[in-house]
Amino acid sequence: MHHIELYVSNLNKTREFYSWLLIRLGFELFQDWEQGFSYKKGGFYIVFVQTKDKYITNGYNRCNIGLNHLAFSCPNKNKINEIREQLLQRGAILLYDDKYPYASGYEHYAVYFEDPDRIKIEIALEDTID
Known about the structure:
Blueprint: E1 3-8, H1 11-24, E2 28-33, E3 36-41, E4 44-50, H2 53-56, E5 69-74, H3 77-90, E6 94-95, E7 110-114, E8 120-125
């Protein structure tokens, strides 16, 4: 995949949320401008752009047509556990946490949570992704 571009409701909240997360997953800041920013890892990058005011009231719901969630790979369980603890400290909304780390129902070590716009994020152990 080359890149993903997401429109967000609050660029500052999104920047604060994703900057600490993506750096921990090996991404580096790639682009930065008034209405957006991006992070890159290898040949892939993810872009975040401020939604225009007239579209913000539409909101986001992962059960509608379109994006359900973003999944990132992570090299080891300790890093996933560390990220989970940091998410808890930051007050992030964890999903399926009562079944952590095997919420998918099989040997798929992962943490699931929401970003500031309630987009579901998954961080999964690299060798458990099919």
